[in-house]
Write a structure and sequence with these properties.
Helices cover 28% and strands 28% of the residues. By secondary structure, it is an alpha+beta fold. It has two domains: 2-26 and 163-186; 35-127, Sandwich (Immunoglobulin-like).
Length: 187
């Protein structure tokens, strides 16, 4: 019986080490890029509409299929968004805010993380005044300073399914259990 206990301890130790190794390898693979700052900032109150949107992430991102940036006014009208680019950790997009109205605006964003998953989020900012008419100079437009924390409504998109590391752990447990069962029957 003592011989059996030594085998069980050895296999249990191997199982614990395998689980630790699987966890250490799997945890970084689950991490997604997160929105770290934006301009305009989440919750910002602007005196003039922005002409460019800038989103900065915690990791390298790229543009997703479809729209990366959408700005919707208080009346439900979407602003035209052009020249959307992704470079390293930043997405920039030009916006035509000529039809902007005073009130709360929703900025929705989507990006493709380095691991291929699409992440998304949304936040609001407020315009204190409507967009200037075509006679008004556009050089007086000011933008809010970027914030250093992610907007509260930022949520990564669900990738669906069970994470691969969980299958590795279940497989390891099954293999060790089978080995222990076979060894026990032999003794």
């Amino acid at each position: 019986m003592c011989h059996y206990a030594a085998h069980v301890r050895r296999y249990f130790s191997a199982l614990v080490l395998a689980l630790l190794a699987a966890t250490v390898v799997a945890v970084p693979a689950q991490a997604h890029a997160e929105l770290k700052s934006s301009n305009p900032a989440s919750g910002a109150a602007l005196d003039a509409p922005p002409q460019q949107i800038e989103l900065t992430f915690s990791d390298v991102i790229s543009l997703p299929d479809g729209d990366a940036v959408t700005v919707t006014g208080p009346d439900g009208a979407k602003w035209p968004v052009t020249q959307t680019h992704a470079a390293d950790r930043t997405i920039t997009a030009k916006v035509d805010a000529a039809a902007a109205k005073a009130g709360a605006h929703t900025l929705e964003w989507r990006a493709t993380a380095d691991d291929g998953d699409v992440i998304s989020g949304r936040f609001t900012f407020t315009l204190n005044v409507a967009a200037p008419t075509s006679e008004a100079p556009t050089s007086s437009v000011t933008m809010s300073a970027p914030v250093s924390n992610a907007p509260p409504a930022t949520t990564p998109a669900e990738s669906g399914g069970v994470p691969a590391w969980l299958w590795v752990v279940v497989g390891l447990i099954a293999v060790v259990g089978a080995i222990l069962l076979v060894r026990r029957r032999k003794t």
